[in-house]
Design brief:
This protein is mainly alpha-helical. It is built from 5 helices and no strands. The radius of gyration is 14 Å and the shape is elongated. The two termini are 14 Å apart.
């Protein structure tokens, strides 16, 4: 389990709406938030998104959920997605 507030807040009996991202404090910290929205990970996300655009020219037109599903399910980008998630975890461990 990734230490995102959506999951960790469950064990603390925190309402879902109050499981706010501790880094940006903009919204509930979900997997989609981390991989598509949180400004703390923009640099990591840019490399991932650039490769995704090379694989699918319509990627930029996807909504956040579609982008998330693409990067976690496309075999051609799986290695970079895993690497991106690893580095995101390293940053998040510093916060928690």
């Amino acid at each position: 389990m990734a230490p995102i507030r959506l999951e960790t807040g469950r064990y603390e009996n925190i309402a879902v709406s109050d499981r706010i991202c501790p880094i940006c404090k903009l919204s509930v910290e979900t997997e989609i938030h981390v991989l598509t929205q949180c400004p703390a990970y923009d640099t990591l996300r840019n490399e991932l998104y650039n490769q995704a655009k090379d694989i699918n020219e319509d990627f930029e037109n996807f909504d956040d959920e579609q982008k998330f599903m693409f990067v976690v399910s496309n075999d051609k980008i799986a290695k970079l997605t895993a690497k991106t998630c690893y580095f995101i975890l390293q940053i998040s461990f510093e916060v928690y």
